[in-house]
Design a protein that fits this description.
Strand content: 5-15%
Distance between the termini: 42 Å
Largest sheet: 6 strands, mixed
Order of helices and strands: HHEEEHEHHHHHEEH
Length: 258
């Protein structure tokens, strides 16, 4: 039986205690941090409940799984062929994000870290950035949003659609996705049937399977390392880490590549 990392087990216990405590889901107004709105607090609690359910499911089903080799922390390889990318193809480093457009923590990474990464490393030719899909099963609109991103990408508008999806992740209904596409002036005679088709389903599922192979189970998750012709060879970074975490690792890798 596979042994789960202590931090995951501890998280499951803490979540169980926190979410089972009366009043945990609704703090008194005087107790709320001034920097967090009720909507943000509710979103975090909802995400934590879903993470707890996922962890419980992982533990419950693990005894039924066959033993598989654990990938090396510094030897994870991910392919990016066909994935949306930013930055120079000849950049010495590559960073791959596994994302879910309905994930609250993916939005936190996008708002707090991505712009600085783009300005300081992607736009300067030091880092190639790619996105892979990992829509989580407990996010009802995530798969449809991933499909919308691919359909927009087919018209050269993946990154603007990505911004629209993440900025409006609480509203990813089909009608809303069509509205975002219209706002981007996409050809709706092409986008509309694409959104309701299964054109990109196999590609999305392949991305999810590859994430599972390297033991990624949540979003956002990243693989950062040396660029190889078809992707990246490096280490996993899990969670919506602050910009400084990524910068420290990037500087370390750049120094080694010189």
């Amino acid at each position: 039986m596979k042994v789960y990392p202590l931090h995951l087990l501890a998280l499951a216990v803490v979540l169980g205690m926190a979410l089972a405590t009366p009043g945990a889901a609704q703090a008194k107004p005087a107790e709320k941090a001034s920097s967090m709105t009720q909507e943000q607090g509710d979103a975090i609690l909802k995400e934590l409940r879903q993470i707890r359910q996922l962890l419980e499911k992982m533990v419950k089903t693990d005894s039924q799984r066959a033993e598989q080799p654990t990938p090396s922390a510094e030897g994870v390889k991910v392919q990016i062929e066909g994935s949306p990318t930013l930055g120079s193809p000849s950049a010495p480093l590559t960073m791959v994000e596994f994302t879910d457009y309905q994930c609250f923590f993916c939005r936190q990474f996008y708002l707090n870290s991505f712009a600085e990464l783009k300005k300081n490393y992607i736009d300067t030719g030091k880092l190639r950035y790619a996105v892979r899909d990992f829509p989580l099963s407990f996010h009802a609109d995530a798969m449809r949003a991933a499909q919308a991103a691919h359909c927009a990408g087919a018209q050269g508008q993946y990154w603007p659609m990505r911004n629209a999806l993440i900025s409006n992740q609480s509203n990813l209904s089909e009608d809303s996705l069509l509205g975002y596409a219209q706002g981007l002036k996409l050809d709706m005679t092409v986008f509309r049937p694409c959104l309701t088709s299964s054109n990109y389903l196999a590609e999305i599922q392949r991305s999810m399977e590859e994430a599972s192979i390297i033991e990624i189970s949540g979003t956002p998750s990243f693989v950062l390392g040396k660029s190889i012709p078809d992707g990246v060879a490096g280490a996993k970074i899990e969670g919506a880490q602050p910009y400084a975490t990524f910068e420290t690792k990037i500087k370390e890798l750049l120094a080694k590549s010189q």
